[in-house]
Automatic annotation (TrEMBL):
Record flagged with keyword Transmembrane: no
This protein's record includes keyword Aminoacyl-tRNA synthetase: no
Protein's organism: Oikeobacillus pervagus
Keyword list, A-Z: Oxidoreductase
Protein name in the entry: Aldehyde dehydrogenase (NAD+)
Gene Ontology MF annotations: aldehyde dehydrogenase (NAD+) activity
Family membership noted in the UniProt record: Belongs to the aldehyde dehydrogenase family.
PANTHER family: ALDEHYDE DEHYDROGENASE-RELATED
Broad class of enzyme this protein falls into: oxidoreductase
Occurrences of domain Aldehyde dehydrogenase (ranges): 20-478
Length: 485
């Protein structure tokens, strides 16, 4: 049973069947109201993972023989099913990890669009003809699948991230074993229930719920898989990369960020401030692309601070299912504890420039958003990924210093500049060390049809989404046929 009354119970989906997970369940509570139980999480063993991988091998043998348009039609069915149940999926996900319902609905629709985008890839070219030096030889390339792909996902985009991995993996002809994050297991179970309606052949798409140290580790070290696509923290990503490198299996790791927004003297503050605050505080700052450093040119600094202080009164913290919520709680007790350490550090060693109001009486993992100044560029608040609603402000003399500070980070995921000076915008685009460069836009919100990924410690230098994802989920065969022989 996936639902027990109004509660959802985590289950595995292996070889086209639902499997109850043995052992003791753990209650899952709503981070917006920690008195409300929303379901139970059961955790799998290493044996469950191996069973799912065996099923995926059987599924791969069937799936790899399907034509591109046949695979397309399954992905279109998955998209239609998700669109039909978008409100149910968004409501559950919102209750499970605290993202405001409006944003969560947007995330689900991104998932629908991603499924349709990759469905269309089923009828697009999968290679190119390369002229041979021999007139009697036809030389061409073709993409072929990798085999069984392990997909390990975080909790912060519990719908869109799994889909932006599963959809390109499937359209390229791979079968999948998906391990979602512990704080997204109910959403994952429900999402699989939705995808079941597409009637994929047995074993093509499998779900295994469990801990990273058990299910994730077994996938990395023991299971007979051909590739891993991982999104999560840089610390875990480093382990994923070294485990895969030892086995020589293909991997991609999309990891943390410490994204900067630069505000130059000529920026239009009326437009800039709401965009920066949205980048910093939507989803309670729990986006890998969230704005967490704001670098401001000194000529506009006083006016910028005044505008931020005024705007922060509208950045209210409320229950995730309240339509008025600008941000909800952070996702879990663990998140609450980690982010609270940083807010305490900010209050002790920094200067609080502005704070958004808390507007709820519920008991939940609420953290008031903070804009912090008075710290150096080397301070922990400026260098470490906080992954919560805290943004630090730094003042600089000119665009050169701004770019230098922007690049003074282990991470290189996303960065923005706010200016109408095309020369300075181009100087930023040319010199900034990030994968996603934005002018007069949020650091987050990159569109699904464009490549997504970072430089430095934000990524394994691969890219997701758009057509770039097809490069990861396939390998290229170069074929040469001598036809006059
Ligand atoms: P996390 O690294 O703790 O967990 C990510 C996934 O890895 C989870 O499914 C977890 O169970 C699994 N895992 C943990 N230990 C493992 C192990 N030893 N072996 C295999 N798998 C293991 O990250 P999180 O807290 O879930 O997510 C937040 C992080 O994700 C942040 O750092 C954020 O920046 C990053 N993130 C990056 C992107 C991106 O595209 N670059 C997108 C979203 C989130």
């Amino acid at each position: 049973m996936i639902t027990k009354g109004l509660e959802v119970v985590s289950q595995n989906y292996i070889a086209g069947e639902w499997r109850s997970i043995q052992g003791e369940g753990q209650a899952v509570f709503n981070p917006s109201n920690t008195l409300e139980k929303i379901g139970e999480m059961y955790l799998s063993t290493a044996e469950d993972v191996l069973e799912a991988v065996a099923a995926a091998h059987a599924g791969f043998m069937i799936w790899k023989k399907k034509s591109g348009s046949e695979k397309s039609s399954y992905l279109y069915k998955m998209a239609d099913a998700l669109e039909q149940e978008s409100e149910e999926v968004a409501t559950l996900a919102s209750k499970e990890m605290g993202k405001p319902i409006g944003e969560m609905l947007g995330e689900v629709m991104r998932g629908v669009n991603l499924l349709r985008f990759y469905a269309a890839e089923g009828v697009r070219p999968t290679g190119e003809v390369i002229p041979s030096t021999d007139a009697d030889v036809l030389q061409y390339t073709k993409r072929v699948p990798l085999g069984v792909v392990g997909i390990i996902t975080p909790w912060n985009f519990p719908v869109a991230i799994p889909i932006w991995k599963i959809a390109p993996a499937l359209i390229c002809g791979n079968s999948v074993v998906w391990k979602p994050a512990e704080h997204g297991v109910l959403t994952a179970t429900f999402l699989m229930k939705v995808f079941e309606k597409a009637n994929l052949p047995k074993g093509v798409l499998n779900l295994v719920i469990g801990k990273g140290s058990v299910v994730g580790q077994t996938l990395l070290e023991e299971a007979e898989i051909h590739a891993i696509s991982f999104t999560g923290s840089t610390a875990t990503g480093k382990n994923v990369a070294s485990a895969c490198a030892k086995r020589n299996i293909k991997y991609q790791t999309e990891m943390g960020g410490k994204n900067a927004a630069i505000v130059l003297n000529d920026a239009n503050l009326e437009k800039t401030v709401p965009i920066i605050l949205s980048g910093a505080f939507r989803s309670a700052g729990q986006k890998c692309t969230a704005t967490s450093r704001i670098i401001v040119e000194k000529g506009i600094y006083p006016k910028f601070i005044a505008a931020v202080q005024e705007a922060m009164s509208a950045i209210t913290v409320q229950e995730a299912l309240n339509n008025q919520a600008y941000l909800g709680p952070v996702a879990s007790k663990a998140q609450f504890d980690t982010v609270s350490e940083y807010t305490q550090l900010a209050r002790k060693e920094g200067e609080i420039i502005a704070e958004g109001p808390l507007k709820t009486n519920q008991k939940g993992y609420y953290i008031q958003p903070l804009v912090v100044g008075g710290v150096s560029a080397k301070h922990r608040l400026v260098q470490e990924e906080i992954f919560g609603p805290v943004a630090t402000v730094l003042q600089v003399d000119d665009v050169e210093e701004a770019i230098e500070l922007c690049n003074d980070s282990l991470y290189g995921l996303s960065a923005s500049i706010f200016t109408n000076n095309i020369n300075k915008a181009m100087q930023f685009i040319d010199n900034v060390e990030v994968g996603m460069v934005r002018v007069n836009q949020e650091t987050s919100g990159v569109e699904y049809q464009a490549p997504f990924g970072g430089m430095k410690w934000s990524s394994s230098h691969t890219r997701e989404q758009g057509q770039a994802a097809l490069d990861f989920y396939s390998q290229v065969k170069t074929c040469a046929i001598k036809h006059q022989f």
